Structure formats: C-alpha cells, structure tokens
Amino acid sequence: MAEPTLSPDTWANVARFTLDTTPDDFPDDVLDAAALMTLDTIGITIGAGPMQAGQIARESTVALYGAGRQDLSARMMFDGRRVSLAGSAFAAATQTDNLDGHDGYNPTKGHIGVVVVPTLAALSETTPDFTGREALTAVTIGYEVAGRAGISLHNSVSDYHTSGAWNALGVVAMAARLRGMSEIQMREAMGIAEYHGPRSQMMREIANPTMLHDGSGQGALVGLSAAIMAELGFTGAPAITIEEDQVAHHWQDLGSFWQMQHQYVKPYPICRWAHASIDATRAILLEHGLTHGDIAKIEVNTFHEGACLFQGMPDDTSKAQYSLPFAVATMVVHGRIGVEHITGSGLSDPLVAQVLDRIIVTETAKHSDRFPMGRFADVTITTTDGRVLESGDIHARGGPEAPMERAEVIAKFMEFASPSLGDARASAIRDAVLGLTDENSKFSDLAALIFDAP
C-alpha cells in the first residue's frame, strides 16, 4: 500500500487556526451560533439523563474509567461523580447520543456538538478558568475541525462511518487549545485519535437500532485519551483526513467559511432522516385540520437512507428513534414528538400502532439524488372521505434551508431541561450559556450549574 502524500500547508493552517487564533478573530455571529448550539446540546444531555442508556453510560464510566491522577479527573455532567477526563466526556457524549435530538451538519451525515459540549465541560475541570468567549472559540474550533474531518473521511473511503470516526479530531483540537499543547503534541494526538477512532459502519446501526447510535461516546473517549497520551509522549501517524493531499481542498476554507453557522437543530428527538417525512405530514395535518381518525392511508416518498429506517412498531427507545413510520404516526396522533413518546408506555401506544399500519414508505430517486446535502421527502395522505392530499417536496426543518427561529431553539432547551432540573435551574443554565458571548463572562458562570445531579 502506497504511503499517502501529505500536505504540509494544510496542517500548518489547521495548527494556526487551532492554537494561535483569539476570540477576536472569530465573527460575533459565529460565536452567537456557538452559544445557541451549546445550549441546544446541553438540553439534550439533560433530557437524556434519566434514560436507560445514559444511566448505563455513567455507571460504566464509574466502573471502568476512573482517574488515577486528580489533575486528570473531571466530574460527569449532571451527575457529579468524579471520573477520568476522558471518562467524563465519554459518559455525557454517550448519554446525549442516545436521545437523538442533538444538532448535526448535512455534509458530514453526522453530529459534532454531541462530543464538543461534553469535551468543553470535562476540560474545564482540568484547566484554569477561561472566558466565555474563549469557551465559544474552543467550541467553534471543535466544530470546524471535526466537520472537515468528517467530510474528508466520507469522500475518501467506501463505507459510511459513524460520527465517532471523525468527531474525535475535533475533540483533540479543543484539548490542544485549552490545555496549551504544542503543535507537535497536537499533531501526534490527531494521528492517535484518527487511528484509534471507531470506524463503525452506520448502516449496521440503522438496520439494527441499539444504544450504539452514532459512536460519539467512543469519539469523545478516543479524542481526549489521544490528547493525554500525546502529552505524555505517545506518537501517532499523521491524520490523513487532515494531512493527505487528496483531502486538502476540504480544508482550504478553514477560517473563512464557518460550518458553525450551518448546523441543523432538530425539532424532534428522532433520526433526522425521518424529519422531512414528519414535517410533510405535519404540514398536511395543519393545513386541513386532520386528526388520526380522518386518515385512511399515508404514502411517504423519501431518500434511500430514510427508507432504510426501522419499519415496525418499536419495542425499545433505540428503535423508536430510528423508525420513520413510528415517528410519522406519533406526529399524527399527538401533534408533537417528545421524550415521553419514545420511552415507556409511548412505545406501546395503541393509537400510534393503528396509524403506523396505514403508512407506506418508498424510496424515491429524486430525493436520494439530493442526499446528503438535502433531506427531502413528500407525503400523500388519503382521507377516510376519499380526498387525496399532497405535501409536495418538503425539506427537513432546522437547518439553513428551513431554519428554526432563535426563540424556538431556546424554547426547545427549556422543554427538554425543565422536567429534570426544574424551571429555575434550567433558566439559569439558559442565561449562563447565552451570556458566554459577553466580554466579562467566565466559563465558571456556567460550570457551577452543569455538574450537580438533578
């Protein structure tokens, strides 16, 4: 196998962007976007806390990833128990990943905030306090590096890999910046993280939904482990998703085009491949004032990956979050999709089961051709009185194509955070996160609120 041809200019640009920039080098609207995505992710972390997968992640971390050195330990988010730095990020990322309501980026076919926010929280436990704007700068660096690593990976290999395979590199970038690593240490850590990253095949999880989800817990664990190993002198081969010449063009706009501003926010805690179908159904229901009793048949036309989602009535939360027909049926019956619909008795809702049996899902070439840059579907509903109602092509809400309003994102945070924390603590976290953009803010203003158990 031939050795890859490396691009030293690309690496130099990544190193400068990660280690040498200041918050003043980042546009204010980019940092505003970072604050909003941070808030959205924390809301999902909180909402996922009581779920079985989150509980297992935290207990596994206590059992397996304790810290032998106090200076490399960190509390787990919304739990408070002290574990290793890498373990803290792993627990929160795994927990967040299992409530599929966190942000994503279309070109990567995956998720970044799910590791960035847990990494920021963990790193804050091992470094001196830093400003709110520095926190948002680190968040932005994590997004920008991870996003380009993801695009590079997807465009240079044949399999579709989970987010943990590439978002680990964003974790390394954040650690390098906040821990003051040298360029040489960062380069070794990038190589370690890429080499050890979980190159797990995403479509296996789609075919058989489990708590593995998008592999991001392992991405966080590998990324922070790689950073500490590099600090201690461990070496790694160059990260070819950054340094190989054939992917250099994916990095040329680093620091000029801000992926941070092009993330999507999920209005529902469901795989986004189902969102266009949900939104198309929702639009018809609202326009015509329909209820579940008015519907004889729902025909969903979507892209290949969406059509591959789980088809039956789910018997656990993982299947529920990866089921397009279940999500559409839930929207028809309840007019919304919340945590209560994908857990507990929501999994055996008889009305949802009845509507699900009336849904037909078909792959459509025109929608497949636009994936992953577009997530389109169209829906036709036949009513019990014989009307045939068509949605036309609908793009999933929440991204640049059909953005959610800032107020909607903030309201979403409160919806997911308040049931566990209460309105007072949830409101304090909301205000602290959005206040990170202020010149005089400190990350400790937020840190004081995100570690104690509910």
TrEMBL record:
<dbReference type="Pfam" id="PF19305">
    <property type="entry name" value="MmgE_PrpD_C"/>
</dbReference>
<dbReference type="InterPro" id="IPR042183">
    <property type="entry name" value="MmgE/PrpD_sf_1"/>
</dbReference>
<dbReference type="InterPro" id="IPR045336">
    <property type="entry name" value="MmgE_PrpD_N"/>
</dbReference>
<feature type="domain" description="MmgE/PrpD N-terminal">
    <location>
        <begin position="14"/>
        <end position="244"/>
    </location>
</feature>
<protein>
    <submittedName>
        <fullName>MmgE/PrpD family protein</fullName>
    </submittedName>
</protein>
<dbReference type="GO" id="GO:0016829">
    <property type="term" value="F:lyase activity"/>
</dbReference>
<dbReference type="Pfam" id="PF03972">
    <property type="entry name" value="MmgE_PrpD_N"/>
</dbReference>
<dbReference type="InterPro" id="IPR005656">
    <property type="entry name" value="MmgE_PrpD"/>
</dbReference>
<comment type="similarity">
    <text>Belongs to the PrpD family.</text>
</comment>
<feature type="domain" description="MmgE/PrpD C-terminal">
    <location>
        <begin position="268"/>
        <end position="433"/>
    </location>
</feature>
<dbReference type="InterPro" id="IPR036148">
    <property type="entry name" value="MmgE/PrpD_sf"/>
</dbReference>
<dbReference type="InterPro" id="IPR042188">
    <property type="entry name" value="MmgE/PrpD_sf_2"/>
</dbReference>
<dbReference type="InterPro" id="IPR045337">
    <property type="entry name" value="MmgE_PrpD_C"/>
</dbReference>
